[in-house]
Amino acid sequence: MSRCYELLSKLAAFVPLSWIWVGKRSDDPRGDAPQFLAEGWALIDRLTAEMQESLRVVELLPADTRTLDERAQAAHALVVRFLAGHFGPAPELESVVVRPVLHGQDLHLRLDRFSADLPICGTVLSGRGTDATGAELNAHACDQCFGRAPIDPPPVLTAAEYEAWTAYIHQSGS
Predict the structure, then answer these.
(1) Which uninterrupted H or E stretch holds 87?
(2) pTM
């Protein structure tokens, strides 16, 4: 994981002993990345300071009112999130396909994750839509689906869906 075992050892100090650290040594370069090392040492410094009880006048409330157990649980959660963020699997990119659908003489666009009966414009096609190539003769392209007219109410799309839709309408020259 990292050639900096001192860093990993200090991070392990914030994880309860009931957790079993299992791993194998590998040549994973993420453990030696400057960002990981810098953030890891900064996290250790922060958590070490948070875990220490500072001297104070008894009549004054402590700056951090959490118990040591609560601080230890918070530190554990931070270390786990930190390690997962650096060594967890990369998030899969959402794959969205835009498909043309012919409904009578109207050509609509739908996203493959939605129902075939519901194009981007929101017009219900009631099961009579058929997949199309997008180049059908005498077909009228829906102004809303092809981005030439506003859609009311506007569709709620994820970033990947929006990117796929706009890329499709720009590449089709609409």
Answers:
(1) helix 68-87
(2) 0.47
- CA dist 6 → 12, 13, 37, 140 (Å): 10, 11, 11, 67
pLDDT tens digits, one per residue of 60-73? 887 778 888 888 88
Beta bridge partners of 140: 106
- The rounded distance, in Å, linking the Cα atoms of 141 and 134 is 9
Tell whether omega for the bond before 154 is within 30 degrees of 0, i.e. cis.
no
Longest dimension (CA), the chain: 85
pLDDT digits (tens, 9 = 90+) for 122-153: 887 766 555 665 555 677 888 988 888 888 77
Q: Identify how many contiguous H helices and E strands the chain contains and give both numbers.
A: 4, 4
**Separation between Cα atoms, residue 2 and residue 107, nearest integer Å:** 55
Q: DSSP assignment of 35-85, as one string?
A: HHHHHHHHHHHHHHHHHSPPP--TTSPPSS-S-HHHHHHHHHHHHHHHHHH
